[in-house]
């Protein structure tokens, strides 16, 4: 059984600390809403891609 690791990698932690946190100060409420919606859309698309591959994993064998 595979163990699911939900923690960020060291590289992801670094990017979060250095790149994103310094830029988030400049985001106003309207931009925050727009960015949140864009992020949610990307997450839904990612979920759909994962579901597609799971459903079709045995079709190529």
TrEMBL record:
<dbReference type="Pfam" id="PF04485">
    <property type="entry name" value="NblA"/>
</dbReference>
<dbReference type="InterPro" id="IPR036904">
    <property type="entry name" value="NblA_sf"/>
</dbReference>
<comment type="similarity">
    <text>Belongs to the ycf18/nblA family.</text>
</comment>
<keyword id="KW-0150">Chloroplast</keyword>
<dbReference type="InterPro" id="IPR007574">
    <property type="entry name" value="NblA"/>
</dbReference>
<protein>
    <recommendedName>
        <fullName>Uncharacterized protein ycf18</fullName>
    </recommendedName>
</protein>
<keyword id="KW-0934">Plastid</keyword>
């Amino acid at each position: 059984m595979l163990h699911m690791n939900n923690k960020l990698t060291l590289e992801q932690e670094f990017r979060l600390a250095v790149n994103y946190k310094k830029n988030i100060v400049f985001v106003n409420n309207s931009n925050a809403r727009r960015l949140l919606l864009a992020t949610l859309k990307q997450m839904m698309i990612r979920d759909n891609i994962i579901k597609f591959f799971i459903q079709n994993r045995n079709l190529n064998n």
